[in-house]
TrEMBL record:
Coiled coil: none annotated. It comes from Brevibacterium casei. The keyword Translocase does not apply. Keywords: DNA-binding, Repressor, Transcription, Transcription regulation. Transmembrane segments: none annotated. PANTHER family: HTH-TYPE TRANSCRIPTIONAL REGULATOR RUTR, HTH-TYPE TRANSCRIPTIONAL REPRESSOR BDCR. GO terms for molecular function: DNA-binding transcription factor activity; transcription cis-regulatory region binding. This is TetR family transcriptional regulator.
Length: 213
């Protein structure tokens, strides 16, 4: 049994039942293994959970990088990224991140994992923002576009995360469409972006998990 299979099963179990109800025995049961074999690979439940969050995060990040690393204009890539990132009522993927954030208040290992993932998310958003500055699609204060792009990425992610939690608590497609429009408007203002060139993308939110959000 590969380590990645155990991590994927752990992510599935957290999404299905929530972190508070997670039992190593249930993860093992999904794979037809004994709980002791799972513990053999990860030593403790806490280490298993932290590794599962890292596994899920990298899966989401890889999908986000696929969206960003294309030849499309930066405006289109950013809109696709925003539309994919914001959760819909049909996905359970964001439940794992809500669990992770709340658990990080009391678990240093999870907090460390999320800190690393957060920096990587900032890098993804900052890259497409810097691309837009370089092509004249976006405008930021400062002579060096690198640092302002990182700050803009942090602000945009904070706005997205706040709206995403609200959507997960009371999901609805009509509300999601409204909030996606808010995100686009926020990006227009933050990046001095031409609103007429920003069309919400058609990516399926959360498709990267069994999809951070």
């Amino acid at each position: 049994m590969r380590r990645e299979e155990i991590l994927a099963a752990t992510v599935d179990e957290i999404e299905a039942t929530g972190l508070r109800a997670l039992r190593v025995a249930d993860v093992a049961g999904r794979l037809g293994l004994s709980a002791s074999l799972v513990i053999y690979h990860f030593q403790t439940k806490e280490a298993l959970v932290a590794a599962a969050f890292a596994h899920a995060g990298e899966s989401d990040l890889n999908r986000a990088r696929e969206i960003v690393d294309t030849d499309a204009p930066a405006t289109a890539r950013l809109s696709d990224l925003l539309a994919w990132y914001l959760p819909s009522g049909s996905t359970r993927a964001w439940t794992i991140w809500m669990d992770a954030w709340s658990s990080a208040l009391f678990d240093a290992e999870i907090q460390s994992t999320l800190t690393v993932l957060d920096r990587e998310w900032q890098d993804v958003f900052a890259r497409v923002i810097a691309d837009g500055v370089a092509t004249g699609e976006f405008a930021l204060d400062g002579e060096d576009p690198g640092e302002p792009a990182a700050v803009a990425a942090t602000r945009l992610l904070a706005y997205l995360d706040g709206l995403s939690v609200r959507l997960m608590v009371g999901p609805g497609e009509e509300e999601r469409a409204t909030m996606l429009a808010w995100v686009e408007e926020f990006a227009d203002t933050l990046l001095a972006r031409d609103a007429t060139s920003a069309a919400p993308g058609g990516r399926a939110p959360g498709e990267s998990l069994p999809p951070h959000s």
